[in-house]
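User: My notes are a mess, but here's the protein and zinc ion's SMILES. Can you give me a structure?
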Amino acid sequence: MFKGTFHAHSRFDDGREELESYIISAMAKEFKVFGFSAHAPVLIDSEWNMKEEDFDEYVQTTKFLKEKYKEGLEIYTGLETDYYPGCVDWRKKKGIDYTIGAVHFVKSETTGSLMPVDGYRQEFEDTLRDGFSGDVQALVRAYYGQIREMLLNMPPNIVAHLDIIRKNNGNNVFFNENDEYYREEISKTLEIVSLTQVILEVNIGGISRGYVEEPYPSKWILESCLDLDIPVMINSDAHQPDMIDAYYREAVSLLKDIGYSHQRVLYGNEWRDISL
Ligand SMILES: [Zn+2]
Ligand SMILES: [Zn+2]
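Assistant: No problem, the inputs look usable. Here's the predicted complex:
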């Protein structure tokens, strides 16, 4: 089984430990390729994101490790970039090999501010109540609308955890994925993913941290992705080195079950499809 991941957080942002610990763990777990993806700095207050002044050190450290471990593992320098109105475009920054585009903060028309969609349950409730007057349908539409805007205005290489808005939705407490409006939002969004040729990640980080029981996105969404020929990639979204392959094998089985035979990864400095 080919193992790779392009999604990892370290002490530079909201993860733990030095970058090198992730590489040592990746080699022990027989990964072939490993990409770092610190949360790129944002223009709002956030505890999750890397500070602007740490950016150069982050890039330099990843390049140093790439050289040091070149015999054992391919290493790439990425960023998980937040998309929101007025955000910085990090795609062409020197030293960056790829970006994973995400929406973690959704713009509320009521408050005019950016509010978290994947924080703790209390934060989600605050966003829903204060930013969207308790109207979950409006929040869902705003979230997926912002993802589509990202795909059209600033397409990243990879789209992160497409339906992370369901992070706190265990037992359908806030919304139901079977509702017609929800299905419609997904289908409109996948159409744009397919048009823009962006890779969709299968994110196993939410399971390993105990938030959800299946990867992002849900299985029915992945089935639609296959119908639309959207390339996928399995990503750890690890915040600590020992978690980089938690649920990896299960994600491979899930994709094979659905009918996928390959995942698309950056390998040998090229985007290519590798057998699952
Ligand atoms: Zn994320
Ligand atoms: Zn992440």
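The mean pLDDT is 96.
User: Great, I'll file this with my notes.
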